[in-house]
Amino acid sequence: MGRYDFRPLRVHITASQLLASERIKNVPPWHQVIGTVPPAQTLVRSQPLKHQEKPRRPKTRKPSKLFQPQRIVYEEDTLRKEFYRDHPWELARPRVVLENDGRDSERKDWSLVSQPDRPVDGESVVQRQMFLLHGEPETGQMPDPNMTPARAYDQARKEFYEMRLQQDIERRVAKEEAMATGAYFGKTTLQIGMELEDKIFEEWKAWAARQAIQMEQRQAAMYTGGNNETAAVPESSDPELEAAIGELDASTSAQGQVASGGAAFTP
Length: 267
Fold this sequence. Notes:
Elements: H1 11-20, H2 31-36, H3 75-86, H4 104-107, H5 122-134, H6 149-180, H7 189-223, H8 239-251, E1 252-253, E2 256-257
Antiparallel strand pairs: 1-2
Helix pairs in contact: 3-5, 5-6
């Protein structure tokens, strides 16, 4: 077989020979199409990547991980990682996955960060940076020889920020025009979030005030009393309780209760 397989290119020739020799009676539906539009590529199928053998020390037993798939690494992955690390909230924006099939560079002109048929997002910055670094050789647009990844990233970010600012201004103007004609949009998400935060804060203040009062009452109950202080007696409308309290106060001096009873002591 060799390195390349040319059998798919000989399908039309083989089918024509079989028809001429009447080995097959009916003409295949694809016979005329293949003859009119032959395959444009000489290599119908690209060759797979060869496994790179890692240097290893000689061992007596066979290594368990001899055949491992090669790690697929693209330059765009590094640029995406850098952009979304600096702009994490861009991942929260809604996005349609089907709008990028991996071949946008063939149909887009990334000399500008904005495209007419797709929104500006992080992928636009990545593709714009790739254009600044490598250019577009198919269209004759060559890159700047002094361009570095850092400079390309800064330029793509600057254009991205300008587009975001322009979009914000357009939305603001459209909202003001709609409100001038009587439209009502209600509260914004920022206002709703602030109201919820204020509500929780007011609830916390009321709870903190109650906790502070209870703590002061506990401390006052712990440190009340003394020799020269009179304990506070709660008011009561019961006459028997008031009479008992009066008798207790009359029988108790300011220095304490007088000792009574016991044997007499003679010095």
